């Protein structure tokens, strides 16, 4: 069971994040200059092609949960790239000297207006790219916009505060080694062995602040499954945080720094596999974007924990107790894990192996609707109402399946689902894929002295 | 030199030159943009150029699984793209015009096909502009490029209607032009389109396929079918 007091405390802490952000002292001219410098430096062939190919058909609004739930045309995804489009037209496009005569330069006011469009109302879910007739990668452009806004000191204060904390102290929401060890002690009390700081291991587990504080069932489930499998695994206290607020806020330097901490630990223990927790953005941050210091691809495998568990089940290494076939369960694809990560089949295979009545939402997989809380949007206080509206689409999708449980494999999605459920008094259970699997492990090992709380 | 001679001669040459050089320059400028050569993470599935091309071709078919849009808004672009193709490439006088330019020809479709296609395209373009000025999303995201592009696409159809007084066989059988003024206007409208082409969104004719391919590759390497 999730401790709802901790959940509410977490929400309360989010309300105070803006107060923790360290202010910068940039002038408007400096903000504009910094933002444009980032836009110019990121303007490569791929982005330019995306910007030039758009035909303003507006189809992307069909796919966007923020537009569909509000019908406010300002949320049309293609519009979110307008500032980039203007900078490109004026400075780097084929006919820049001519275009400059007719295209107004961007201003600080534009940047401030675009903050809401690129953070509050875009989770970089990528669904708009699926419908775009031209195949424009809007999420990538929004990510560049986030980098520009962050450099200009115009990221939302909530994300700025956490990014500053992660860059400065290496912690997220105050969770460092001491807090991790406390959570592990609680797990040990429940009879779940957690091998911390082993010098060598085949599998290195990464966790996240949200699992340490709130979703301990997911962390415990991961430990129980690995112990059950007899895998030589470890969790390194010097590099355990999967959440990457560099990626979320738009700080490329912090993104690399946060990834490097994990990469260094994985190299130190000679890990063959690094398991990413149920945290949507943490997966592409490590699996698809992290590199060695010299820019080479990572020499170890990076897997999402739900992907790993599904794979172990499919390979016959993990057998589960029979489940309740009358229990209807559906699955929510976290955008970063599925559409942007490619992890779609394994979590479903794991859920089907539970012996429950598994029903997919429609649409699903790479076309699934975002829950509205990803890419840091959940932390932005002023976006609460907008997020809740967007979540209604997801809610309707789940309700249409008739499921009594929706399984998720992303802490941010789970938070957003829980916030929506609490507000609407929604009765559907919201559970972790890994925790559900762990609950049906055969009681054959010494690690299951007590049942999972 | 009559107006028609001028439009058929120097102005046609100028507009074709702007079209060819403009398109080439725009593609070359894109090609010269920086490209990341960082080694990428190991792909989940092999996804090569042919897979990307196949995915780009399949993107012409609308995707299921999205909120139902107005059927007309989805069908309309198909109508005017196909109509444009039929009118420009299968009408006998147009084929004769292209033969003079590029030296090759092909069999024409009956005039009736062109009449029907032109009518459908004109209606379709009118619906498109109606959507653009009334739909809140399209109104919000539209720029001058959208309206100029619509105008230069629509004008050749309107001016073309003014020279449709004979069958194509009769038109081609004559050794002189009897509707010089309207024909000059028709050619002029085509030249406007050619001149605008490299500067606006008509370039999507060249950019759509590579953009689709790069997105398909981005997702495909990750094991996601786009």
Could you give a quick summary of the protein structure above?
The complex is a heterodimer of chains A (453) and B (226). Chain A is an alpha/beta fold and 453 residues long.
Task: Draw up the topology in text.
The complex is a heterodimer of chains A (453) and B (226).
Chain A lengths: L3 H12 L1 H4 L7 H15 L2 H9 L6 H4 L1 H6 L11 H11 L3 H7 L5 H13 L6 H5 L6 H14 L5 H12 L8 H13 L13 E3 L3 H5 L2 H14 L3 E2 L10 H5 L2 H17 L4 E4 L5 H8 L11 E4 H10 L13 E5 L12 H8 L4 E2 L25 H18 L3 E4 L2 H14 L4 E4 H6 L15
Parallel strand pairs in A: 1-2, 1-3, 3-4, 5-6, 5-7, 7-8
Helix pairs in contact in A: 3-11, 7-8, 9-11, 19-20, 21-22
Chain B lengths: L2 H29 L17 H10 L12 H20 L1 H11 L8 H24 L1 H6 L2 H18 L6 H6 L6 H17 L7 H18 L5
Rg of Cα set of chain B: 21 Å
Can you tell me the overall shape of chain A? globular
CATH overall fold name of the largest domain in chain A: Glutathione S-transferase Yfyf (Class Pi), Chain A, domain 2
Q: What's the total count of β strands of chain B?
A: 0
Sheet with most strands of chain B = none
Q: What is the overall number of helices of chain B?
A: 10
Helix content estimate of chain B: over 70%
Describe this protein's structure.
The complex is a heterodimer of chains A (453) and B (226). Chain A is 51% helix and 6% strand. Chain A is of the alpha/beta class and 453 residues long. Chain A has three domains: 28-152, Fumarate Reductase Iron-sulfur Protein, Chain B, domain 2 (Orthogonal Bundle); 170-312, Glutathione S-transferase Yfyf (Class Pi), Chain A, domain 2, CATH 1.20.1050; 319-438, Rossmann fold (3-Layer(aba) Sandwich). In chain A, strand 3 (273-276), helix 18 and strand 4 form a beta-alpha-beta unit. In chain A, helix 3 (28-42) packs antiparallel against helix 11 (138-151), helix 9 (108-120) packs across helix 11 (138-151) and helix 21 crosses helix 22. The longest helix of chain A has 18 residues, at 384-401. Chain A starts with a helix and ends in a 15-residue tail after the last helix. In chain A, 59% of the residues are buried. Residues 446-453 of chain A have low confidence and may be disordered. By secondary structure, chain B is mainly alpha-helical. Chain B has a domain at 71-226. The longest helix of chain B is centred in the first third of the chain and has 29 residues, at 3-31. The mean pLDDT of chain B is 93. Chains A and B meet through helix 4, helix 5, helix 10 and helix 18 of A and helix 1, helix 6, helix 7 and helix 10 of B.
């Amino acid at each position: 069971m999730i401790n709802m007091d901790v959940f509410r405390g977490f929400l309360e802490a989010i309300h105070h994040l803006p107060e923790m952000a360290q202010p910068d002292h940039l002038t408007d001219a400096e903000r504009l200059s910094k933002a444009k410098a980032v836009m110019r430096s990121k303007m490569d062939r791929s982005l330019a092609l995306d910007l030039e190919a758009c035909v303003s058909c507006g189809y992307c609004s069909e796919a966007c949960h923020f537009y569909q739930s509000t019908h406010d045309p300002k949320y049309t995804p293609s519009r979110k790239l307008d500032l980039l489009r203007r900078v490109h037209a004026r400075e780097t496009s084929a006919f820049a000297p001519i275009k400059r005569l007719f295209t107004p330069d961007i201003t600080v006011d534009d940047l401030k207006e675009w903050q809401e469009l690129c953070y509050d109302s875009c989770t970089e879910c990528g669904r708009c790219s699926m419908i775009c007739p031209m195949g424009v990668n809007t999420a990538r452009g929004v990510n560049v916009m986030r980098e520009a806004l962050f450099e200009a000191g115009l990221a939302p204060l909530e994300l700025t505060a956490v990014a500053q904390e992660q860059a400065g102290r290496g912690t997220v929401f105050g969770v460092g080694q001491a807090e991790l060890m406390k959570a592990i002690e609680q797990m040990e009390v429940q009879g779940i062995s957690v091998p911390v700081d082993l010098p060598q291991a085949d599998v290195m587990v990464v966790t996240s602040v949200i699992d340490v504080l709130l979703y301990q069932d997911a962390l415990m489930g991961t430990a129980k499954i690995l112990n059950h499998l007899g895998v030589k695994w470890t969790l390194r206290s010097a590099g355990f945080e999967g959440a990457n607020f560099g990626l979320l806020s738009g700080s490329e330097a912090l993104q690399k720094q946060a990834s490097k901490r994990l990469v260094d630990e994985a190299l130190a223990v000679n890990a063959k596999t690094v398991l990413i927790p149920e945290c949507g953005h943490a997966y592409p941050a490590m699996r698809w974007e992290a590199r060695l210091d010299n820019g080479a691809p990572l020499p170890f495998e990076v897997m999402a924990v739900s992907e790993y568990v599904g794979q172990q089940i499919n390979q016959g290494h993990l057998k589960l107790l029979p489940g309740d076939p009358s229990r209807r369960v559906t699955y929510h694809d976290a955008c970063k894990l599925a559409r942007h990560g490619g992890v779609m089949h394994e979590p479903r295979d794991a859920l089907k192996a539970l012996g429950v009545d598994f029903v997919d939402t429609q649409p699903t997989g790479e076309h699934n609707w975002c829950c509205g809380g990803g890419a840091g949007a959940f932390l932005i206080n002023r976006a609460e109402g907008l997020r809740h509206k967007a979540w209604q689409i997801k809610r309707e999708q789940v309700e249409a399946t008739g499921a009594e449980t929706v399984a998720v494999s992303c802490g941010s999605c789970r938070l957003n689902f829980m916030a929506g459920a609490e507000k609407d008094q929604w009765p559907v259970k919201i559970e972790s894929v890994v925790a559900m699997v762990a609950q049906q492990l055969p009681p054959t090992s010494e690690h299951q002295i007590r049942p999972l709380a | 030199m009559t107006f028609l001679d001028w439009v058929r001669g120097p102005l046609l040459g100028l507009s074709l030159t702007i079209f060819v050089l403009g398109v080439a320059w725009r593609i070359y400028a894109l090609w010269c943009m920086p490209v990341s050569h960082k080694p990428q993470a190991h792909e989940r599935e092999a996804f090569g150029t042919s897979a990307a091309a196949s995915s780009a071709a399949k993107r012409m078919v609308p995707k299921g699984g999205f909120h139902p849009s107005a059927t007309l808004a989805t069908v309309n672009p198909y109508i005017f793209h196909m109509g444009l193709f039929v009118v420009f490439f299968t009408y006998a006088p147009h084929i004769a015009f292209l033969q003079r330019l590029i030296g090759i020809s092909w069999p024409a479709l009956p005039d009736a096909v062109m009449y029907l296609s032109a009518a459908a395209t004109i209606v379709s373009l009118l619906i498109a502009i109606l959507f653009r000025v009334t739909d809140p999303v399209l109104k919000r995201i539209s720029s001058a490029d959208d309206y100029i592009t619509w105008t230069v696409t629509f004008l050749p159809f309107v001016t073309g209607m003014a020279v449709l007084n004979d069958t194509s066989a009769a038109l081609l059988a004559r050794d002189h032009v009897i509707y010089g003024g309207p024909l000059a206007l028709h050619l002029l409208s085509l030249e406007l389109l050619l001149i605008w082409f490299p500067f606006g969104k008509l370039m999507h004719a060249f950019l759509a396929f590579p953009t689709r391919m790069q997105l398909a590759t981005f997702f495909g390497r990750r094991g996601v079918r786009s």
